[in-house]
Amino acid sequence: xxxxxxxxxxxxxxxxxxxxxxxxxxxxxxxxxxxxxxxxxxxxxxxxxxxxxxxxxxxxxxxxxxxxxxxxxxxxxxxxxxxxxxxxxxxxxxxxxxxxxxxxxxxxxxxxxxxxxxxxxxxxxxxxxxxxxxxxxxxxxxxxxxxxxxxxxxxxxxxxxxxxxxxxxxxxxxxxxxxxxxxxxxxxxxxxxxxxxxxxxxxxxxxxxxxxxxxxxxxxxxxxxxxxxxxxxxxxxxxxxxxxxxxxxxxxxxxxxxxxxxxxxxxxxxxxxxxxxxxxxxxxxxxxxxxxxxxxxxxxxxxxxxxxxxxxxxxxxxxxxxxxxxxxxxxxxxxxxxxxxxxxxxxxxxxxxxxxxxxxxxxxxxxxxxxxxxxxxxxxxxxxxxxxxxxxxxxxxxxxxxxxxxxxxxxxxxxxxxxxxxxxxxxxxxxxxxxxxxxxxxxx
Amino acid sequence: xxxxxxxxxxxxxxxxxxxxxxxxxxxxxxxxxxxxxxxxxxxxxxxxxxxxxxxxxxxxxxxxxxxxxxxxxxxxxxxxxxxxxxxxxxxxxxxxxxxxxxxxxxxxxxxxxxxxxxxxxxxxxxxxxxxxxxxxxxxxxxxxxxxxxxxxxxxxxxxxxxxxxxxxxxxxxxxxxxxxxxxxxxxxxxxxxxxxxxxxxxxxxxxxxxxxxxxxxxx
Lengths: 444, 219
Ligand code: SF4
Ligand code: SF4
Ligand code: SF4
What we know:
heterodimer, A: four-stranded parallel beta sheet, disordered N terminus, B: mainly alpha
């Protein structure tokens, strides 16, 4: 009873998936899957698969479904049906071609944004199921090439971008020197034991967006925060292994991150503006390590900025003049409930905030999350066209005079940038850090 | 005919009760044990307060955003589920049987009301059927078993209605009625109808994760 919709999708060639699948045989697939199902999955998989009543109530939760003209193949439950559903039904006896298709679905047609869990009466967690599917892909050696490359970087260097230890320290010192021209007494303290705050960032910050570290330094110094950054691997809080199904590496990464915080005896970890990294530290990495909650308090930048503004440690000299809108990143909104704090911060910084709808917990994902943007160029068009609804949301607020989109998440930035560019929306993207830096009172 | 009737209304009823109750218990216990073995997170994060908060929002008509967005479906599915329980338990003819068999009794609904509620269930089943055939996403998701289950649910109501109105062949229909009811009950634990058993746990778990861990709402 499978409608032909899926067959119309153009086939995308990804080396990682194709070459991995070329090495597979049906026997090998069956052995791996059976072992996996037996050893690593249990009640949740069973209950989710057996309880789904195929009602389609979750379809409209998904931006992929909505953006692809309600193509049934993109409905959350349909993605499960085409992947794990078949695998469990046939007890792992599926072909390499099937695995290829299932990998593509799990890796590039779901952002693991969990919106559908809020639309299914049973709270069936399709994001969890897609992660289970990705784990199978990982075990079979069929992970999209670009994503696997980042995962390799994590395992070789403990950061996402192949940044070497001395390069990391160099970048920090370079940013410190730059910032000292503006604020002569500014420091980026390295390896300071017992600091209140361990500021951790994602790999791309020292590599491509060093100005964010600069801005963070200015904010920390102005607010008089007792902070530090580590000089050792463990500074990177990002985690593509969580998304590639490499759970062992996910655990190693989080261990390095938490242990760095412990070694420095800091009071808490404050994370830069990244959603997936937050999910990894707060929700998944800790579980992989056997911690119910992170062993040390973890705070996302939104919450931290909220504290600084609310307590008056940062004061705003002149609010950002043109209207802005807020993109709620799933991983810190549906994943941590920071939406009201985000609005408090945005209101404190900007003259006028125009809401997109739906928003807060019901926001649409940017379509970059869940590692989808990290599957790289082969899937870019699919990702961008798969989020027409976001483009429409953005267009609607643009007609209300919005010029700037606040997105306190690196992935969202990447994803929204593409959406804005492809749809020629001409909107500007900002992190909260950008706006605070621009609007705050700085020491002379 | 009598022998068949005596069988379905006698021993088979006991079998049904045993399979249904035993099945429900078995599904619950085995799932709980499996979770204890493989999904310890479920126990770590389950939080009564947030579980109930979520369940309440989903059990209240129009309590969740999705149910507000689909008023027709919401009304149909809520009345359907309510009638589904009311009719077998509170129909006069059934209350009499409860009394005869187990000597327990409770209030009952008037015959006319029972008639209407039965029609509501049948109409709702038709609604679900049409939905499955017409809406592309639901059609895509549906497999043969989904239709069979729908038929299983509708059967006792159609046959009951038939029997009550003493249409042609109603004696046979009466037997089919009892039999189909029994099959339905026995199928609950072992088919997708088990969503009845697992709903509170699944919604409760998601509610707990959303509420206690993620500090967000899930409705
Ligand atoms: S992208 Fe989000 S809404 Fe769509 S299936 Fe994945 S988790 Fe569900
Ligand atoms: S996942 Fe939930 S909402 Fe979606 S089809 Fe299954 S039961 Fe219905
Ligand atoms: S990238 Fe942003 S919007 Fe997309 S999943 Fe992550 S947090 Fe959500």
